[in-house]
Amino acid sequence: MNTLFSQLPSIDGLLREPALQALTAQYGHQFVTHTLRQMQEDARTAILKEGALPKWHPAWAQQAATRLAAQQQSALRPVFNLTGTVLHTNLGRAPLAESAIEAVSTVMRGAVTLEYALDEAERGHRDRALASLLCELTGAEDACIVNNNAAAVLLMLAALAPGKEVVVSRGELVEIGGAFRIPDVMRQAGCQLVEVGTTNRTHLKDYRQALSDNSGLLMKVHTSNYQIAGFTKTVDEAELVALGNQVGLPVVTDLGSGSLLDLRQYQLPAEPMPQSLIAAGVSLVSFSGDKLLGGPQAGIIVGKKALIAKLQQHPLKRALRVDKMTLAALEATLKLYRQPELLRQNLPTLRLLTRPAQEMLCQAERLLPQLQPAYDAHFSLEIAPCWSQIGSGSLPVDRLPGYAITFRAKDGRGSTLNALAQRWRRLAMPVIGRIQEQRLWLDLRCLEDETRFVQTLTS
Ligand SMILES: *Cc1c(COP(=O)(O)O)cnc(C)c1O
């Protein structure tokens, strides 16, 4: 064992080698030395535990180069999202529009008028410019922007009904992935949840009977990710607003995704629109920036001026506010909605959601012969119709027809397919598909850079 230890090179010796000097020039002395120390430690552990030098000995420089490159790689790796879920929360939801990307890089470079009004002496507030734009697009009186829609719901509750009762239908006590549950948020905001109605049926009289001296708010939550079918009854916003007006209580709606456009014109499933709820008289409506809107992660609240002022003045707003990059991306995204006729072209989310199945079929026919030679030996490749999902809390039953290239292991083993999926996850630009019915599916809906895709999968 001692002879093995004596074969370990010294760090000083290694650092004098030309290959390591090149690495030092690239990565810096400190980082290279740190990596060499780790390698030395790994080598000692290998000798103690396995009685042998590590596999990479004596190629220390090469191993150092590999480790340094791996550690220098960004933790946020661009991937090909071929999962079939367009707004994939774990893959960062909406891809941004080019104009939003440009807007972000512009404001990143230096000072901007974030809270500074050029034409008045007074300090502007950071949501001001976007609030005007949001009012134009939704018909609301004012707006407030926070970090995400979960934050928007928390802020609305904490600012409008602290220590008070908030009345919600039992059918709307939703859980969204990642531990967002209405009853929990309610508790965190310091409100008391009052559930009314039953799971399948809630009537206006249920809300009315639940009112007390301590009622603070009537709330509606859009049941984004599930549907109650059959013998059902819900109270719509307009009815609830009428009750709210009678008893002097605001009505707020957590819309989840929301869409500023009527998606039915694109043959997509209908999604409630913030502007319709504002028109129905709802006091505040909240929705996400990075779901169907197609922008950056943000929570958008639109509604009555006096209530938005309460949100803006609440201490939580300071904790939940967004930075200049988010505001820049959101502003650029919202501006695209001024030209709805160009939106399919300019907004990637809408472009991907509305891709014609025929286009994906042609793409599959182009790609299949290019991929085949590299995989033929162990897999049979096929073009297959498939169903994509919108994702991000949209109804899982609403599916979009498309096409996939599928890989079936010739040996019929699940482990062969898993190994393929794993190999693709380790590529320089990982390819993420889904395994289903003993096939690995690459749903082509979100594939735009075909050249890079073919290069990635065949080199
Ligand atoms: C998605 C969703 C949320 C959470 O929104 P984030 O922007 O992800 O924080 C809250 N409520 C509903 C109804 C949702 O669909």
UniProtKB/TrEMBL annotation:
Kindly give the InterPro entries that the UniProt entry links to this protein.
Answer: PyrdxlP-dep_Trfase, PyrdxlP-dep_Trfase_major, SelA-like, SelA_trans, SelA_trans_N_dom
The places in or outside the cell where this protein is found are:
Cytoplasm
Instruction: Indicate whether Protein biosynthesis appears among the record's keywords.
Output: yes
**Residue intervals of the L-seryl-tRNA selenium transferase N-terminal domain:** 5-44
**An MF annotation (GO) of this entry:** L-seryl-tRNA(Sec) selenium transferase activity
GO BP, sorted A to Z: conversion of seryl-tRNAsec to selenocys-tRNAsec; selenocysteine incorporation
EC number(s) from the headed UniProt entry: 2.9.1.1
Which keywords, in A-to-Z order, does the entry hold? Cytoplasm, Protein biosynthesis, Pyridoxal phosphate, Selenium, Transferase
Q: Write down which residues bear the modification named N6-(pyridoxal phosphate)lysine.
A: 291
Asked if the keyword Cytoplasm belongs to this entry, the reply reads yes
Q: Which cofactor does it need?
A: pyridoxal 5'-phosphate
Per the record, GO CC terms?
cytoplasm
Q: Enzyme class, one word?
A: transferase
Identify the pathway: Aminoacyl-tRNA biosynthesis; selenocysteinyl-tRNA(Sec) biosynthesis; selenocysteinyl-tRNA(Sec) from L-seryl-tRNA(Sec) (bacterial route): step 1/1
- Main role? Converts seryl-tRNA(Sec) to selenocysteinyl-tRNA(Sec) required for selenoprotein biosynthesis.
State the similarity comment.
Belongs to the SelA family.
PANTHER family, per this entry?
L-SERYL-TRNA(SEC) SELENIUM TRANSFERASE
**HAMAP family from the UniProt entry:** SelA
Kindly provide the name given to this protein in its UniProt entry. L-seryl-tRNA(Sec) selenium transferase
Q: Which organism is it from?
A: Paramixta manurensis
